[in-house]
């Protein structure tokens, strides 16, 4: 397969200098309209134009994709494999066009046909193959790996239904299935030749001291590839998503012919269910057996594919770590350790200890949460039923791990209380384990894995998260991006530290004005969309104060809405005072079974109903909660925000990445010392950040104090007035008891310390308002935020993964 490679040829076919002229692009697009879509320009609908356009852009991705693949083979390079149950990639058309340097030509050519790009692009489904943070991070990392020229594959599942759609009925969240594949997906290359059987259940037999696994059933994993082009079009990697396919023999023709159609298709349907839905739970796992089977399905197909690719060019499996790095995105693919060991031992006759050593050198594990309910544990019974051979391997690893702990009276175990701890398993089978912010990594070492950490000093490393500036600034905020390019020149997109060159302009009134104009444009873009899509009109001249993320008690949307009520009450008491007009923006989904989170959504919507209809305060305070928050909404909303709410209980948010996107777009942060907030504050300067709240250590102390919630409430008349209004049914006149449970929690337990942090949050919000009243000061702070956010590019994170974990070099 190794053809000799000519680097000059690569440059000819990949670099932006090969960008087409408008005439060439038009011709290519019309060709696709006619021959791929089968329409003439006169007949074409917006959908047809989008298909033709996407196929045209995709064509330009293929050359860099081929040459990157060919070079990786020819130069026998090490590859990175990023295994993730979630890839929250969002729309691809504009993203790919930007990275290929095609955006301007594309917009121009569409305009020649009287079409606006935004209108055409708006029809693209938002590929929501993830829940939130960890899934979106995986998408940013894929794009950065391609930009950095790191040879890599993302491996995931091709869910037929991504994250559910959310709408509100009487303020309550209602979920309906998402259907992103309902129409053609133009980015998809189907690879029927890349298909692997994945076995489940069955028996173990002993044969000459070796275990032979005979699975009860097998499901075929069939590959679908999407090219992921890096910025500048120099390199492209592959996102490979597995679809579950029944093997042909599952369909029972006899039964079908006998008229029992449903029964004939049942085994087939069961097999397909493996890639049917993404689990919508952000913390706890539902449908245990199916979920475990999905995880194994992803992992096994990927590991088989990795070994097949390796063995096509090498024969010594012990050299695997020199050529392969596998990253496990949280514990969902943690069965990769036992699976790799199984394949090495059972199918390639490697001895057990060598297999363990090899697997461990290849694997890395990223932890994304300390929440106990999100740390996966599978019952031994279920494991035995679904993956008997893997359980056997885990038992051996457990015995070895206990031995490693010597005489420890209570050794940590991979299996305890009849459950397999996937975190402990992932740790023992990885050569590096990383947290996602400095504070989180500290807590991972001290609280989650103290024993492991002592046994394996140096195994835990920190890699603070980052976000891609291509999507989250250049694409999402064209007016600010243009201002930056006009001011410091192009190139910051792939060298984000260059934003520092903006620092002196914070003192330049003309630049500050221009920044103000770009923020206004972003607001108009957002409000225009909000009016068209949701019929919500917003005042342009107001402080846009946003909290968008999954709904979770630790993220404390409750603190935000309680403060909003307090603010409303204050305005009503003194309507003539000099109030800063505010728009409180909320966005995010709650796990369908998370009752308290859904109640908080309802409270926000109930408060919005009352506050937005209050003629006395309407011009000063609005509450909006556009439904179905996702990547595409974030792209419009984040650039429009002035204030970013990052207000989790300290010690509970592993990192956050929304916090980075907002600050990069010139929103100031009101936040606690949690996750990456700590580092953002260090970078942008404490004077440019609104800090409040207890520290992680104080959180621990406060929780230990008996009656802390009641004490905090007794100390805050403001908060008591708020709770009183809720209790009286001010926001739920038809049901005074709707929030009894929530109020009860506030008075008697308050694990997330909403009451304890309320007064300090109120103080910080006061500072926000004062500061916003001085536009010059506010703009100076916002500009310094942008200028100092270079560190939070996902390119930096990926560079660190490459050197500290994967030991892989850039091919560029
Ligand atoms: C999230 C963390 O909550 C967030 O702080 C962090 O920025 C992000 O990961 C990326 O590192 N965690 C998850 O998304 C998560 O744990 N999801 C799994 C339960 C599905």
UniProtKB/TrEMBL annotation:
Cofactor (UniProt): pyridoxal 5'-phosphate
Span list, region Disordered: 1-21
Matching InterPro entries: Glycg_phsphrylas, Glyco_trans_35, Pyridoxal_P_attach_site
Keywords: Carbohydrate metabolism, Glycosyltransferase, Pyridoxal phosphate, Transferase
EC numbers: 2.4.1.1
Role played: Allosteric enzyme that catalyzes the rate-limiting step in glycogen catabolism, the phosphorolytic cleavage of glycogen to produce glucose-1-phosphate, and plays a central role in maintaining cellular and organismal glucose homeostasis. Phosphorylase is an important allosteric enzyme in carbohydrate metabolism. Enzymes from different sources differ in their regulatory mechanisms and in their natural substrates. However, all known phosphorylases share catalytic and structural properties.
Name of this chain's protein: Alpha-1,4 glucan phosphorylase
Organism of provenance: Glutamicibacter arilaitensis (strain DSM 16368 / CIP 108037 / IAM 15318 / JCM 13566 / NCIMB 14258 / Re117)
Gene: glgP
